[in-house]
Amino acid sequence: MLRKEQNDYLCQTNAGTPMGEMFRCYWMPALLSEELPEPDCPPVRIKLLGERLLAFRDSEGKLGLIDEFCAHRGVSLWFGRNEECGLRCPYHGWKYDVTGQCVDVPSEPEESGYAKKIKLKSYPLIEKGGVLWTYMGPPEKQPPEPMWEFCTVPLNQSFMTKRLQENNWLQAMEGGIDSSHVSFLHRGDLSNDPLFKGAAGNKYNLGDMRPVFEVVENEGGLLIGARRNAEDDQYYWRITPWVMPCYTGVPPRGDHPIHGHFWVPIDDENCWAWSYDYHPTRPLTESEVAAMKDGKGIHVKYVPGTYRPLANKDNDYLMNRAAQKAGKTFSGIEGIGMQDASLQESMGPICDRTKENLVGTDNGIIMARHRLMRAAKALVEKGITPPGVDPEHHKVRQAALLLKRDVQYKDGAKEALKVKPGVRQTSV
Amino acid sequence: MLSESARMTTAHEASFRIQYPNSKPRAAKVIALDGESAKLVDEIAQQKWNGAKFFTSLSFASGAEPGTTGAGMKAWLSDLAGRAMDLVAEVAESDFVVVITAAGEDARAVSVVADACKLHNKTLIGLVVPKAGASEADVGASLDHLRPHTRMLVVASGRDYIEVMLTALRA
């Protein structure tokens, strides 16, 4: 349970809000590389943290993320022409480069220098691991580039998608922390989904419906361990890392690719759910990539030409009561991603946490909220850089392993939780 | 026509969600397992709570050491006023129990609380809070004591987390 003012504090991310300022300390996924595939390709509109922006790749391949609207009369530059190293407004021909600098105002004599006096807000946009990342904070505080393992492996070892989720970022992200729902909501997929099934560890998930949890703070956020009984005086541990503010990893299964999410605020009532898959030591197979493109695992099928899920609130998420009754899916919704999204959207655009009734096993969520509020307060009041900005905090892996019952997971899984280039993930 | 899912997930429709108290106060019992955590519990208990009861020490009848179960279990909790309360009776009337230990302190008494929780099928939450000078090994020792007995185990880096957690759980 949170008081209303605490809920507002965590959910609001526009400029000037405490959480908004905190989000502006990080490199965040903004677009997929495929959205700006080549020089002078069409620009793309994007809204992040409540700001409407326009991304484009100029004639030389340089990337820009600038204010969407022309400084002249407020026209959307999405209608603009991307040509000759700049984006030209189709209304009166004003032209901007990737830094937002106006480079041409046709109605004014070039000698007047008027164009130099016009500059749109812009943010850096860098390409890494098939993702275009942006940093929306003060230039003097721009951190080093992100070092998430999925964006450091060769491109044929990773696969990334994004989907629109029509609710506040926090309730989506809390789903990524809350591994206790897996045994219920996703139980059908453990046996059926090509990117989940067949792992030896699945039997522990399905055989022990009352996992025991341990929540431990670490430098970047939290480690949330869920343990289930296993044979030979062992526990089966699934360890979920959360790195502030919005990264969650899903513990792996067998030799399937590792996956996880970023939950990036679009505005206070919408977010981008980014879903990555990668394998640390081998290229993804054709069948794995085909399954991902087909919306299996944590990915979804789309409304053609968009990043909106095909199953969405307008069609009641393609609810299938027969599949629900037959036990094929627990909620009647197909696919892990949409099983989560449908329920989280049903909480309303911003979940009213004054009415919730948490239980002891929700401590991962309670702790995450506490750490977010503590970090935002420290940033706003004392200028302290929040956890998760340092790229060293990105070098954490999710893990699934068997440990003797008297071994602490933080010790027993210490090496498994570290990113080690070229070393396979620890998984059962 | 707009689907009902689309209608009910708008901000406007969210304002029509029925406002009523959807839960009754839950009886939380918060037990300090050692002297260091007793000081914290004593401080936290001074705040306004939603029916939570706080206990600062645990003692045993002779012969009823940790590991004793069932009817033979006799242990007393000391409340803030110093009154001795029967552990089993207190657990019996609880909805959940929280035990708190400071890193490195002797937390073996958790097994007695756990036995009472098992007897009445209550959830036991364990919280390890920091102590000045405590090492990783000290935290590990505390976890070793609590792990076999708790359904949720939390290692907090700040003592303020006790209050945060209890508030979140409507204690």
Features:
heterodimer; A: 428 residues; alpha+beta; eight-stranded antiparallel beta sheet; four-stranded antiparallel beta sheet; 11 helices; 19 strands; globular; B: 171 residues; alpha/beta; Rossmann fold
Structure in words:
The complex is a heterodimer of chains A (428) and B (171). Chain A contains eleven helices and 19 strands. By secondary structure, chain A is α+β, with helices and mostly antiparallel strands. In chain A, the strands form four sheets. In chain A, strands 12, 13, 14, 15, 16, 17, 18 and 19 form an eight-stranded antiparallel sheet that branches. Chain A has a four-stranded antiparallel sheet with strand order 2-3-4-9, with no helix packed on it. Chain A is globular, with a radius of gyration of 23 Å. The mean pLDDT of chain A is 96. Chain B has 171 residues and is α/β, with parallel strands linked by helices. Chain B has one domain: Rossmann fold. Chain B is 33% helix and 23% strand. Chain B is built from seven helices and seven strands. Chain B has a seven-stranded mixed sheet. In chain B, strand 6, helix 6 and strand 7 form a beta-alpha-beta unit. The relative contact order of chain B is 0.17. At the A-B interface, strand 13, helix 9 and helix 10 of A face helix 1, helix 2, helix 6, strand 7 and helix 7 of B. Strand 13 of chain A pairs parallel with strand 7 of chain B.
